[in-house]
Amino acid sequence: MSAKSTDAARPRVGDSKKVHIADTAITRSNWYKHVNWLNVTLILGIPLTGLIQAIWVPLQLKTAIWAVIYYFWTGLGITAGYHRLWSHTSYSATLPLKIWLALTGGGAVEGSIRWWSRDHRAHHRYTDTDKDPYSVRKGLIYSHIGWMVMKQNPKRIGRTDISDLNEDPIVVWQHRNYLKVALSMGLAVPMLVAGLGWGDWWGGFVYAGILRIFFVQQATFCINSLAHWIGEQPFDDRNSPRDHAITALATLGEGYHNFHHEFPSDYRNAIEWYQYDPTKWFIWLWKQVGLAYNLKQFRANEIEKGRVQQLQKKLDQRRSKLDWGTPLDQLPVMEWEDYVEQAKNGRGLIAIAGVVHDVTDFIKDHPGGKAMINSGIGKDATAMFNGGVYYHSNAAHNLLSTMRVGVIRGGCEVEVWKRAQKEGTEYVRDDTGQRIVRAGEQVTKIPEPIPTADAA
Questions:
Q1: Domains assigned to the chain
Q2: Which of 328, 307, 294 is nearest to 419 (CA)?
Q3: How many other C-beta atoms can be found within 10 angstroms of the C-beta atom of residue 5?
Q4: Which of 24, 48, 383, 391 would be 449's cystine partner, CB 3.0–4.6 Å?
Q5: Which of 194, 209, 197 is CA-nearest to residue 51?
Q6: What angle do CA 298, 303, 308 make, to 5 degrees?
């Protein structure tokens, strides 16, 4: 960095606006200012302490079972509560369920509903851009945990509307009392259950409390990182979200992220019966017992359209790498007499459906023998190619298209093509502008044999 640019970045005396530390370069002398030490302590320091304590605190079977159960409860507080209920309003919940999700979500110690949902809505609105608070474009580690342990300029995060959250009394209450909720639900409750239940106070604190928080947090962070890094993109590939079963297993069903980013207000992440999405199952179950209602689903027709469009896009990408022959509109126009003359002079030209093909190098490889293909040279071989002698396969039509060298003035199918152009209609084309040629749509393929020029 030049001295001039450095001076420009440094706030001057009397400046009303100070440069945020996150907007300055990290150096040996200021690196510690870039670190969010509070989050480092909460996300890394406390779990490390728990791991050290686990050396002399034995893990009892009852405590282990309780830790797993509480892991799922607090995990659902995030996936079904923070994420699908409050961030995306994909369903509605009764007051008892909202209170339960606000408490268990707070027990995951990932911030308040209001803070979490505000960032998540920005993530969806500005996916993969600089305004995305945990953009994977800045690296896998950054999207997983870096954005939490390094300071961010809050003004750089994209704006989102959270007026509905500000009007939700449960959200407001949890935000104002978040520290109390996090400490009580994150550490006190798991310790009390283990302590009062079977006398394992320290085990409840270490395993069901500290270490359980660590694993829930890391699972949630995988939604921001792995779900944008590995897997397929069956609905859209313009941005990074992906679908993967492993990510779904690690995140209580949030791993079908490509679908989620396309249809964020759908209460489901997994739409196939065999896909793992326990969050969806619990929301459905809550509806059956009257705790949840107004479960939102995108219409199957719209979902399938997105899937088909992406499949077509992938096919177009594969198609663009193949040789489909010179497009008809780029072929030179030949007179019939010129075509016959060139064939008599030794060039292996065959006319089929008004298109001239040079088969000189293919004569020796023709499956039907040299005599058969030689009999069509210099003639209108449309009828014999389309069933008069042999009804050629789609593969034969595709291969023949790569041998195009011209079109006959007044040729059969070419005239149809010309008329369509004049009328303003066009063939279906892919994303690159190339004509899509599907099986059975080759210009040389005629439904029924037609009389040849020789027969006339």
A1: 23-309 (no CATH), 328-441 (3.10.120.10)
A2: 328
A3: 9
A4: 383
A5: 209
A6: 170
Q: Are 258 and 243 in contact (CB under 8 A)?
A: yes
Angle at which helices 169-176 and 113-125 pack, to 10 degrees?
110
CA-wise closest residue to 354 among 390, 328, 375: 328
Query: Coil, strand or helix: which one is 418?
Result: helix
Tokens of 267: 């209460």
Residues ≥6 apart with Cβ < 8 Å to 380? 351, 352, 452, 453, 454
336 burial (CB, 10 Å; 0-12 / 13-18 / 19+) is middle
Helices marked H in 167-232: 169-176, 178-183, 189-198, 201-203, 212-224
Under 8 Å between Cβ of 128 and 136: yes
- As given in the structure block, the two tokens for residue 91 are 């369903």
Contact 282, 269 (CB under 8 A): no
At 156, the pLDDT band (50, 70, 90 cuts) reads: confident
**Torsion angle in degrees (nearest 10) through CA of 232, 236, 238, 242:** -30
Distances (CA, A) of 421 to 11, 406, 425: 64, 18, 6
pLDDT-derived band of residue 113, with 50, 70 and 90 as boundaries? very high
| Two tokens, residue 224 | 């921001």
In this structure, are residues 377 and 366 in contact, taking their beta carbons and an 8 Å threshold? no
The residues with which 30 forms a beta bridge, in sequence order, are none
Amino acid 98 reads K
Give the C-alpha distances (Å, rounded to integers) separating 25 from 17, 22, 33, 153, 158.
18, 8, 11, 13, 22
Q: In what order do the strands lie in the sheet with 349-352?
A: 333-334, 404-408, 355-358, 349-352
Judge whether 362 and 369 are in contact, CB under 8 Å. Answer: no
CA distance 385 to 184: 82
Tokens linked to 118: 């505000």
Q: Which residues contact 301 (CB under 8 A, 6 or more apart)?
A: none
Q: What is the pLDDT of residue 418?
A: 58
Q: Is 123:92 a contact under the CB 8 Å cutoff?
A: no
CB atoms near residue 345 (< 10 Å): 9
SS3 content of the chain, % helix, strand, coil (to 5): 55, 5, 40
pLDDT tens, 361-379?
888 888 888 888 888 889 8
Eight-class DSSP state of 366: -
In this structure, are residues 138 and 146 in contact, taking their beta carbons and an 8 Å threshold? yes
Q: What is the CA radius of gyration of the chain?
A: 33
Please give the structure tokens belonging to residue 167. Answer: 């009007």
